[in-house]
Amino acid sequence: MTTLRDYSQGAAFVRGQYVPIGEAAIPITDWGFLRSDAAYDVVTVWDGSFFRLDAHLERFARSCARFRLDPGLAPAQITSVLAQCVRLSGLQSAYVEMVTTRGQPPWGSRDPRLAVNQFCAFAVPYVWIANAEQREKGLNLVVSRVQRIPATSVDPRAKNYHWNDLTMGLLGALDAGGDTVVLTDSAGNVVEGPGFNLFCVNAQGVLVTPLDGVLEGITRRTVIEIAQARGLPLQLRALPAGELRGAREVFVTSSAGGVLPVTRVDGVPVGSGAPGPITRQLGQTYWDWHRDPRYSLAVDSVPAVDVPDAVAAGA
């Protein structure tokens, strides 16, 4: 008798097999687990369509190359795997992650070149990094004294799991009564937070987002393109914490929520203390672009593509 598997909470592709998300696992000896030695990316599905999948695949490829990792699959094959995870789950709105881990070198070896890299992926219900009240009324953002790992140590443009600095900063912010956190660099400029990029409309009415020391987020890129299309004054440069605290509007951007307003910084109201007009306009346009065929790809339109035997075998 065949037992039907329940994929309703999500589906994963691990070592060449599709399994319910609760059954997905990697060996504890994989350096992805032991050393955070991995690259990943997250694309979302909204109303049955991927949003800007090509951009996420391109960034994933760059991240893997930066860390000398090889997923063993071409972009079309990765797309097919991601689509099948979504189809199995039955989700219309999903958070879809692709990962390449270092794997494990032979026992006794510390040579990462000898490890066999592993690719896995999963789809789960869409993730929001802010709850409904926070999305409506705005977040209380804490500027942390914890410094982001410098780019000379870990390249932030390659999406990675080196999150201890972000986690420590977030714990401090939550303990202080904040909702989330932004870290700083050695010069006192704000850079990024756990899973998001940062923007502000400064006292001069200019939209500013940090240029260096940050992941070049796809949602960040989308907001930059929207701002340019609207003719908004825009600067990509260092953003001192003092300038952020004196801003008219502040918001964060993430695939897990889009454009999310910040209405307090360190507990002090930003501007009027309510989400500002530019934040709302950019947020509305961001979701409107999800219906634009230039950026969306229907999950059901993705053809099935064979996976190489080596990947299917988990070799």
Explain what this protein looks like in three dimensions:
The chain has helices at 31-34, 53-66, 75-89, 132-137, 164-175, 218-230, 241-245, 277-288, 309-312, and strands spanning 11-14, 17-20, 38-46, 49-51, 94-101, 118-125, 139-147, 180-184, 189-190, 197-201, 207-209, 234-236, 239-240, 249-254, 258-265, 268-269, 296-298. The chain has 315 residues and is an alpha+beta fold. A hairpin with a 3-residue loop joins strand 14 and strand 15 (258-265). It is globular and about 55 Å long.
N- and C-termini, Cα separation? 31 Å
Helix-strand topology string: EEHEEHHEEHEHEEEEHEEHEEEHEH
Number of helices: 9
Q: In total, how many beta strands?
A: 17
* Overall mean confidence score, pLDDT: 95
- Helix % is 25-40%
Radius of gyration: 20 Å
The biggest sheet amounts to: 8 strands, mixed
Q: In terms of per-residue confidence, which ranges show pLDDT below 50 for 5 or more consecutive residues?
A: 310-315
- Based on CA inertia axes, which overall geometry fits? globular
Portion of residues in beta strands equals 25-35%
- Strand-pairing-aware structural class: alpha+beta
Relevant terms:
alpha+beta; eight-stranded mixed β-sheet; disordered C terminus; 315 residues; seven-stranded antiparallel β-sheet
